[in-house]
Each structure stands twice: as C-alpha cells, then as structure tokens.
Specification:
The protein is an alpha+beta fold and 166 residues long. It is built from four helices and nine strands; from the N terminus they run H-H-H-H-E-E-E-E-E-E-E-E-E. The longest helix has 25 residues. This is DNA topoisomerase III. InterPro entries: Topo_IA_cen_sub1, Topo_IA_core_domain.
Length: 166
C-alpha cells in the first residue's frame, strides 16, 4: 500500500528541492524572519493541488475490477521482480489475494499445488519432508526435511528415497 501511495505521489512532493525550500522557510521561521502562519497558509493552498492526483487515482486507479473473494476493488500494481510487468491485488483479507495481469485486466487465480509431504526417515527426527521439482531438470524431484541439517533425498516413486551422498 505504501509503495502504491508513493507511486501516486506527485513528483513535486518527492523532489528534494521542495524539501530544501520547506527547510529553508522553517529555518527562517525559527530565525524570526518569516511568519509561521504565512508558511502554513501557503501549505494549505498547495496541499489540495498536490494531493488531487492521489485522491482522483484512488477511485480510477482501482480500474473497476472486483476481488473474486470479497467483491472489493482490486489494485493493479507494478511487479518488483519484473520491470514493466504488473499484477492485481486485494488486501482486504488476512491473506492477500494476488492475481496475474492479463493484458491490463486481472487473470484468474492460479490454484496452489499442494506440496507432497512425508515423515522424515531419519531416526528420531519426527519432522516432515517436502517434495520439490528441480528447476533445472523438469520432471525430476527431490525431498527436503524441515530439519535443514538432514541431507536431501532422492525421489522414489513420490516418496523420500536415499540420501544424496549417502
């Protein structure tokens, strides 16, 4: 939400020259060469001009698309990882809803695949292992224990196999 507000904030408010001018005027107020009321009157005049793009974007920036879970408006946000790409989000839930961007409109929610789990076969462990697919070799799987000190294991027909290096 904070990043969205910053993205909507007019450049003049983010410009260090604006901050420097305000600091200079505040110093003048402290020195007694400028009146506080004059400074505040200028800010009261400038503020509506600066925040109008934010308040107008609050309505139109939501693009009129509804969250499939609660019906509230979705927000289209830029991706941090992929420059020039976007995603859609609703933050009105304990767990936010994220949707892919498909040609400027929200796509359908991708179902999360449930991770395969199995008890760790290490003696006395009692923790669970999870099955992962290799990013380098599609269709190849391996197992990882919640106890990070245990070795990775091969996949034996969907179950933890022998320890790598063992």
């Amino acid at each position: 939400l904070g990043q969205n507000i910053i993205a909507l904030t007019p450049e003049q408010l983010k410009d260090p020259i604006t901050t420097a001018l305000w600091e200079s005027r505040l110093s003048a107020i402290a020195a007694g060469t400028e009146q506080f009321d004059t400074f505040m009157a200028d800010q009261a005049h400038l503020l509506p001009i600066l925040i109008t793009p934010i308040t107008e974007s609050a309505g139109t920036g939501l693009q009129g698309h509804s969250c499939p879970e609660c019906g509230n408006a979705l927000r289209r946000l830029p991706s941090k990882k992929d420059k020039g790409k976007f995603f859609w989000a609703c933050f009105e839930h304990d767990t936010p809803v994220f949707l892919p961007d498909v040609k400027g409109k929200p796509g359908t929610k991708q179902p999360r695949t449930k991770l395969s789990q199995a008890p760790c076969p290490e003696e006395g462990c009692g923790k669970m292992m999870r099955r992962f697919e290799s990013k380098k070799k599609k269709g190849k799987f391996f197992w990882v224990c919640e106890n990070k000190h245990h070795p990775l294991r091969s996949d034996d027909d969907g179950k933890p196999g022998v320890a790598f290096g063992g």
